Amino acid sequence: MDTFAALADPTRRRIVELLGRGERSAGEIVDEFDVSAPAISQHLKALRDAGLVQVRADAQRRIYAVDPAGLAEIDAWLESVRRFWSRSLDALERELRKPPRRKKR
User: Fold this and answer.
1) pTM listed for this prediction
2) In contact, 59 and 27? CB cutoff 8 Å
């Protein structure tokens, strides 16, 4: 699953936000939502497949954390968009600062 497609779902975005504050077990994540554990498990799988979260085993528990590599991919995309708009807005500003042209009669 594509990174942005994974984040299109509000539940998945909220999971990433929770994990942005620190690691959590699958059970702790489930406790934050009013949906079933299997539904959260599917969301976590989609986030893992998209490279946004990683999981490690701790005895019988699964501990989830944000995957920095997945966030780096988003940062790179955002930077390319920022560069485009920055250049475009700079060009617009230059045009707007030019003195008005006089109409020929």
Assistant:
1) 0.74
2) no
CATH classification of 3-67 is 1.10.10.10, yes or no? yes
CA distance linking residue 50 with residue 6, whole number of Å:
7
- The token pair at 89 is 């807005």
Kind and range of the H or E run holding 61 = strand 61-66
CB 53 within 8 A of CB 47: yes
Q: What is the pLDDT of residues 57-68, one digit of tens each?
A: 999 999 999 999
How far are the Cα atoms of 27, 77, 94, 95 from residue 88, in angstroms, in the given order? 47, 17, 10, 11
Sorted by where each begins, the domain ranges of the chain are 3-67
In tens, the pLDDT along 45-86 reads 999 999 999 999 999 999 999 999 888 888 888 888 777 776
- Do residues 45 and 11 lie in contact, with contact meaning Cβ atoms separated by under 8 Å? no
CB 50 within 8 A of CB 1: yes
